[in-house]
UniProtKB/TrEMBL annotation:
Domain (Methyltransferase type) ranges: 49-140
Gene3D superfamilies membership: Vaccinia Virus protein VP39 (3.40.50.150)
A Pfam family recorded for this sequence: Methyltransf_11
Protein name (Swiss-Prot/TrEMBL): Class I SAM-dependent methyltransferase
Transmembrane spans: none
UniProt entry keywords in alphabetical sequence: Methyltransferase, Transferase
Annotated GO biological process: methylation
InterPro entries: Methyltransf_11 (IPR013216), SAM-dependent_MTases_sf (IPR029063)
Source organism, top-level taxon: Archaea
EC identifiers of the protein: 2.1.1.-
Length: 235
């Protein structure tokens, strides 16, 4: 099962958070949330669009900090998990969940202050079209992550049931330029791929993360990182 079919399965939605963000996956969750907060801050009073909002990990977090946010996804089952998160956090009135296609966003030009997508571009079949649409509806900022081709992720990528597109830095830079975006900054992280961390206990994961971070901070760290966070501005 590939791409959209895998993602929209009922059992995937029900187990998504538990499989990815328990055990050593907890530190991945913390790092991703910090990356989003660092990029979008300050979020209080901002109008934000999240593409592929999934189970609402980031949607509820940003609403708690004062953002008015639209979460768009192709999976109704995923968004139901997000609605439950929003209700528990008491921020449902600051979030609108919409089922839609990221290649044809149902919003006018320059509608949002910031548009972002996490865990999306590795499944994107037409990344140029998606990025162009994100840029079109944003007044200021587009933020997203990619998985990288020069990394250990290559070793297990072919095992993934949904497939995964791996990017080179120059490919992302071309996509940004073609979408009319200017790269403000980029961060590269996780020499050890996500799948490794998810398989080990949280306490042990912290020790590996320390080693991972130490190597990342060397001259070869950016080249070997499995994940990149791209923070761009609308020209």
């Amino acid at each position: 099962m590939k791409g959209k079919e895998w993602y929209q399965s009922d059992d995937v939605a029900e187990e998504y958070d538990a499989k990815r963000f328990s055990r050593g996956g907890r530190l991945i969750d913390r790092r991703e949330k910090q990356a989003v907060l660092d990029a979008l801050a300050p979020v209080d009073g901002k109008d934000v669009l999240e593409i592929a909002c999934g189970t609402g990990r980031f949607t509820a977090m940003l609403a708690e900090r004062g953002a008015d946010i639209v979460g768009l996804d192709i999976s109704s089952e995923m968004m139901e998990q997000g609605r439950e998160k929003a209700r528990r956090a008491g921020v449902a009135d600051h979030i609108e969940f919409m089922r839609g296609d990221a290649a044809r966003l149902p919003f006018p030009d320059d509608h949002f202050d910031s548009v972002f997508a996490m865990r999306f571009f590795h499944l994107a079949d037409t990344p140029a079209k998606f990025l162009a649409e994100m840029a079109r509806v944003s007044k200021e900022q587009v933020f997203f992550d990619t998985f990288n081709g020069r990394s250990l992720r290559v070793l297990y990528n072919w095992l993934l049931p949904m497939g995964s597109h791996l990017y080179a830095s120059d490919e992302v830079e071309r996509l940004l330029a073609d979408a009319g975006l200017r790269l403000a900054n980029a961060e590269h992280d996780f020499l050890l791929p996500y799948g490794f961390y998810r398989k080990i206990p949280n306490g042990v994961a912290g020790e590996f993360r320390g080693l991972d971070t130490a190597i990342r901070d060397t001259p070869v760290g950016d080249e070997l990182a499995s994940v990149s966070y791209w923070n761009a501005r609308v020209k």
